[in-house]
């Protein structure tokens, strides 16, 4: 174990406490030993870093806002959903924590492997169904006796709602949520091995006067391919890329507004210094260009186009005939 290096102020504070009797040397040693001991449960292996858990929380905070908007429009009543917690636990522990009879929706998230489980508290589920069927949103828990019609209504409601996972996850990976299974007894679901680590995101949900929880269970095997994208450094790099892209766009727009000289050359010739010094008014220079010959148009002293001379609205003008080879690379 690496030794912790204390600052000079911390050393002075410890020496002062020992000298004044506020802390004895034995107390200091005891505190040092307690600080080195850390409880670790090998049955509950932590496979996600705190950074990754924070990223998952951030994603599902966005998901909670999308769900709030969706259910408010569908149910036409007060709806509030927010993230209560995000923890990593063994799958077996999660299954034991949910009620024996509840509403369970299983989804696939291609291209990611594996399935995720979304558990909705029966009180919330029945309140939603009551609103969809024209009621006041009263919750009556009879999950053991669901009719085929009630099962169909619930399945359709949650299938459409949780398609919003696509939008919430779009900042990390493009997924296509596919509704796979509807179940009421968690004992009949065995998505992964009991000791597999899963992330459970709990959403506080309020529908009118009814409150409950929506739990999203995501196994480690589903998230394993995209774990690097859940780190803080990836988010920072993404923001830098977005910033860089914006700067490039602004630079291009600025360049487009820059003014450059455009010159149509009528022709050119070479003369000696002696002839140049002796030239005067009335002298004629042969430019080596015929009346019907095309002209070269230069942009910023670089030949870009071939044109023919003429007039446009009583002004001298040129008409572009073709672009010179290699001109596109000089934009």
Automatic annotation (TrEMBL):
The Flagellar motor switch protein FliN-like C-terminal domain, residue ranges: 255-324
Superkingdom of origin: Bacteria
Main localisation: other
Keyword vocabulary terms for this entry: Bacterial flagellum, Cell membrane, Cell projection, Chemotaxis, Cilium, Flagellar rotation, Flagellum, Membrane
Record carries keyword rRNA-binding: no
One of the GO biological process terms: bacterial-type flagellum-dependent swarming motility
Membrane protein topology class: Peripheral membrane protein
Compartment annotation: Bacterial flagellum basal body; Cell membrane
GO cellular component: bacterial-type flagellum basal body; plasma membrane
One Pfam family it belongs to: FliM
Signal peptide: none
Gene Ontology MF annotations: cytoskeletal motor activity
Record keyword Transmembrane helix present: no
NCBIfam families: fliM_switch
Similarity comment: Belongs to the FliM family.
Protein name: Flagellar motor switch protein FliM
Organism from which the protein derives: Rossellomorea marisflavi
Lineage: Bacteria, Bacillati, Bacillota, Bacilli, Bacillales
């Amino acid at each position: 174990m690496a030794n912790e290096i204390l600052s000079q102020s911390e050393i002075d504070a410890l020496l002062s406490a020992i000298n004044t009797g506020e802390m004895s040397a034995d107390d200091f040693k005891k505190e040092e030993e307690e600080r080195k001991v850390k409880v670790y449960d090998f049955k509950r292996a932590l496979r996600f870093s705190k950074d990754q858990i924070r990223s998952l929380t951030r994603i599902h905070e966005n998901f909670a806002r999308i769900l709030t908007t969706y259910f408010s429009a569908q149910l036409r009543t007060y709806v509030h959903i927010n993230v209560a917690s995000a923890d990593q636990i063994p799958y077996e522990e999660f299954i034991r924590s949910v009620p024996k009879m509840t509403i369970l929706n299983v989804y696939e998230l291609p291209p990611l492997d594996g399935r995720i489980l979304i558990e909705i508290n029966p009180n919330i589920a029945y309140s939603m169904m009551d609103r969809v069927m024209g009621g006041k949103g009263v919750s009556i828990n009879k999950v053991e006796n669901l009719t085929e019609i009630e099962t169909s209504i619930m399945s359709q409601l949650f299938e459409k709602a949780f398609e919003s996972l696509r939008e919430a996850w779009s900042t990390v990976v493009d997924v296509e949520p596919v509704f796979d299974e509807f179940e009421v007894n968690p004992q009949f679901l065995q998505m992964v091995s009991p000791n597999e680590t899963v992330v459970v995101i709990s959403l506080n949900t309020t529908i009118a006067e009814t409150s409950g929880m929506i739990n999203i269970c995501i196994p480690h095997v589903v998230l394993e391919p995209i774990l690097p994208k859940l780190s803080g450094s990836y988010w920072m790099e993404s923001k830098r890329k977005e910033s860089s892209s914006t700067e490039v766009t602004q630079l291009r727009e600025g360049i487009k507004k820059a003014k450059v000289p455009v010159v149509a050359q009528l022709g050119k010739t070479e003369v000696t210094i002696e002839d140049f010094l002796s030239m005067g008014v009335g002298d004629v220079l042969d430019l080596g260009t015929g009346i019907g010959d095309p002209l070269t148009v230069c942009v910023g002293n670089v030949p870009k186009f071939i044109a023919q001379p003429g007039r446009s609205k009583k002004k001298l003008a040129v008409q572009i005939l073709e672009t010179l080879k290699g001109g596109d690379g000089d934009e």
